[in-house]
Amino acid sequence: MINRGGDALVPASDPEASTEDSAVRDREVRGLARMVQVSPTTTLVDLTLRGVAPGRYNASIREYGDLKFGATSTGPIWAGGSGTTQPRGILGPVEVGGDGRGAAFLDHPIQVWEVIGHAMVLTGQESQDDLKNDQNTVVGVIARSAGMWDNDKTVCSCTGTVKASVPEFQEAARPALARQS
């Protein structure tokens, strides 16, 4: 999940705080969610939480990725065209201990591409239908990131331009380099 430039879950308690405002200090990272699709029908969700009150938190994928008003603007739990009474966006529980830390590995029958752009919400609230913004509800937007070693870059010695390491760039750079010598 990406929020404010990192793979982060942030508190929903002050969603309209300006980045210049002192209230931003309250928006520290409260957790991390990693999603790895391990088969065509199964995704592993690795969740960690920190700095929240002890208790049971429910993780869910929401219909929208709109965080303008925090958790309240993320919409209902994502149904995902399930056609059943159980929405596909219900991920499961995360237990947080007395130290304010919790972790869970959840496998879920979704494909990662289906949920990119949706919000993920972790809340201790009993009802997940009408979410309220509070200090212990954390939100983030699910985004794609490159896999390990999948984002190699090459710096062109002729212009200094950073380019992705692809054969076309490497081939195109050779004639320019030959002309310079």
UniProtKB/TrEMBL annotation:
It comes from the Eukaryota. One of its GO terms (molecular function) is copper ion binding. One of its GO terms (biological process) is superoxide metabolic process. Residues 1-25 are annotated as: Disordered. Destroys radicals which are normally produced within the cells and which are toxic to biological systems. This is Superoxide dismutase copper/zinc binding domain-containing protein. It comes from Xylaria arbuscula. The lineage of its organism: Eukaryota, Fungi, Dikarya, Ascomycota, Pezizomycotina.
